[in-house]
Amino acid sequence: MALVAQWAFGSSLPFEWQQQTQAPAPPSPAMLSLASLGERQAAATGAVLYAQSFDAQAGRVLPIKGLDIARIQQWLALAAELNPTSAYPSFLSSRIYAEQAPPPVTREILHWIVSLHLQHPQTHWPALAHAVHLARHRLHDQPLARKLAGELSATPAHVAMPPWARQMQAFLQTDSTELEDAQALIGGLIASGQVTDERAIAVLLADLKSIEASIEAQLESDKRAQEIHPNSENSTETISVTSDLATQQPSRHR
Known about the structure:
There is one protein chain. The chain is mostly helical. Helices cover 62% and strands 2% of the residues. It has 2 domains: 21-83, no CATH class; 86-224, no CATH class. It has 12 helices and 2 strands; from the N terminus they run αααββααααααααα. The protein has a two-stranded antiparallel sheet. The radius of gyration is 23 Å and the shape is globular. Residues 233-254 have low confidence and may be disordered.
C-alpha cells in the first residue's frame, strides 16, 4: 500500500520541475490545531518548518528574495498565534525575511513584531531590538527607529532585559555605522544568554558576516570608481593648496 501511494503521488507531479515562489495560504489556527489533535506547540513547529524550508524545493534552493515573503510571513504569524511563547517565529521574521523583503513588507513585519512584543515582551524583545536596527539602517527611517526603540524603553520593569536594550534610544543618537550597531546587538544577545540555540547563533553570525561582506564590497566599488575617475569628487570644487594642507586628516570610510 505504501508503494502504491508513493507511485500515485509521484505520478501526480509534473515531469518538468517548476519552482514555486508563493506558498499556499495557511490554514486557520483552529483547523491546524485540530489536525494536530490539539497539540498547538507541535502545530506551531510544523508551520515554522514549512515556512523555513519553502525555499528548498525538489533539491534546489531558491533565493529568498525571489519568494513571496508576505505569504511566508503569514505562516510565521500562524505559528506565533498557536504558540505565543516561542521566540522562533519573530526571530526568523526579523533576522531572515525582513532583511530581504521589499520595504513595504519589511515595515509590515516590523509592526507585527511590535504587536508580539506588547503581548509577550519577555519572548520577543530581541526581535524588536533588531527591528530598531532594520528601521535605522535598511529602511533609513529614523522616526520609525525611534518609535520602536521607545517601545523597548517602555517595556515593563519586571521583564528581564539587559540595560542596553532599554537604552536603544540613546544609541540612535550616536553616529555609529551599520556594522558597529550589528556587532553591539549580536554581541549583546549572545553575551546576555538570550540566544543559546546553536542554529540561532549561526544565523546571527552569518548575518554579521553578510553585513561585513556588503560593506567591503561597497568600499572596493568606491575604490575602483575613484581609480577610474580620480577627479570626479573635485569636478565642482576648486581646492587650493596651502601650507595648512599638511595638517588636514585624510577622510576615512566607516
